[in-house]
Design goal:
The chain is α/β, with parallel strands linked by helices and 205 residues long. The chain contains 8 helices and 7 strands. α1 packs parallel to α8. InterPro entries: Flavodoxin_fold (IPR003680), Flavoprotein-like_sf (IPR029039), NAD(P)H_dehydrogenase_qn (IPR051545).
């Protein structure tokens, strides 16, 4: 059976998928909708909720020493790595803050996407070697207040450069897809609900 791993980053956690004042997140609603759509299609879904797990995104001295030795001292990082290695598809969902991902997602890339485990260093003249042998596709789902065209043409799509070009394509993996929900603060609840319904069909493709 196909295995989807969703990596989610928002301080309110996935529990904020409902329209409750001061505890609501469109990003969380996207996770819930994605999970429902995938499961309806007969797919196994594994959700990594970074804030609920209490993930520490900081690369401490001891973490870096272990990273250089291709070892892991954080049990949660080791658990995440095992789950990524089993995944046929990885979906990252988070809001855009200051034109990039929040700290926990950046820390996830720093600590979890580790050499000797998720990838191997290149030999002469070659790119990094991807060790995610089951992986078929990587999807990035983002939510932002910035208009999409402004983010793309003025800021230059920094998040896709980091996630796609700077990470997965560097490992030789090119089957990537970006779904961006921009200018969200301007939308009514009805408009957001409509986007969620459409998203449910988009994410499984």
């Amino acid at each position: 059976m196909k295995n989807i791993c969703i990596v989610f980053d928002h301080p309110y956690t996935v529990d904020a998928c409902h329209n409750e004042p001061h505890n609501r997140s469109f990003s969380a609603a996207l996770v819930t909708e994605a999970q429902k759509s995938y499961e309806k299609a007969g797919v196994t879904v594994d959700v990594i909720d970074l804030h609920k797990d209490g993930f520490d995104p900081v690369m401490h001295k001891e973490d870096l020493i272990a990273w250089r030795k291709k070892k892991v001292i954080d049990s949660l990082v080791a658990d995440y790595q095992e789950r990524l290695l089993k995944a046929d598809e990885i979906v990252f969902i988070f809001p855009i803050w200051w034109e990039a991902m929040p700290a926990m997602t950046k820390g996830f890339f720093d600590k979890v996407i580790a050499k000797g485990i998720i990838y191997d260093e290149p030999q002469q003249g070659k790119i990094f070697v991807n060790k995610l042998v089951n992986l078929k596709k990587v999807k990035l789902v983002t939510v932002m207040a910035t208009p999409h065209l402004l983010y793309r043409w003025v800021f230059g799509n920094p998040v896709t450069k980091i996630v796609f070009r700077g990470t997965f394509r560097k490992m030789g993996f090119h089957k990537v897809k970006w779904l961006n929900y921009a200018n969200m603060t301007k939308l009514s609840n009805e408009e957001r609900t409509k986007k969620l319904r459409i998203f449910g069909n988009k994410i499984i493709k």
